[in-house]
Amino acid sequence: MPGHIERLEAFVEEHRTRLKKLLRAYGPGGRPASHGRYALVGLPKTLVILERMETAPFLLCGRWEKELQTVFLDDLEFAWGRASA
After folding, report:
1. What DSSP line would sit under 2-33, residue for residue?
2. pLDDT tens-digit readout, 22-38
3. The whole model's pTM is what?
């Protein structure tokens, strides 16, 4: 996908503070992670998921429901919060 790397790099730069907070609060080694509810936080593919959550949430949800349990996406969405957070 042309421009995909650049889009992810821009996303990380724009949301660096939120990403750090997400990892501290819900990432590996944290209490929420010990319960398995936030299994996606800390995985490399999480950046792609979060970028899609911010830019194309309905497309992401439609594709996600066909492939994986929605609880993982719901938990990640809760941990990430809304764009204004």
Report:
1. TTHHHHHHHHHHHTHHHHHHHHHHHSTTSHHH
2. 998 888 877 766 666 78
3. 0.74
